[in-house]
Design goal:
This protein is mostly helical and about 110 residues long. Helices cover about 85% and strands about 0% of the residues. The protein is built from two helices and no strands.
């Protein structure tokens, strides 16, 4: 009978811990979700004023920035540096020259 009572005691302890895990794990999960939500809200509240300032400045400056970067790229390419995309441009130029070699005009 003692062995049977100890088995019942073990199963009660096991049931207690299973119930405890069923309560504690969702609480920990909910705590993590709430803390991530708070962090996300804080980042959102910090970045919104920043975007409210930067987006109009970007819209105002894009007509200046785009041509300036384009001119800078052309100057880099013409001076012999190899900016991004220069290799692809060279390949296209070589294909055009190769296609145009056999092409002649009949002017007369």
């Amino acid at each position: 009978m003692a062995a049977n009572g100890s088995d019942q005691h073990v199963s009660l302890d096991q049931q207690f811990y299973e119930d405890l895990v069923k309560i504690v794990v969702p609480m920990i999960f909910a705590g993590h979700i709430i803390s991530l939500s708070i962090v996300g809200l804080a980042i959102f509240l910090i970045l919104i004023p920043l975007f409210m300032i930067l987006i109009p400045l970007f819209i105002i400056m894009i007509p200046v920035l785009f041509p300036a970067s384009f001119i800078f790229w052309i100057c880099s390419y013409l001076t012999g540096e190899h900016p991004i995309g220069a290799d692809q441009l060279e390949e296209v130029r070589k294909k055009i020259v190769k296609a145009a070699v056999g092409f002649t005009y009949n002017w007369i």
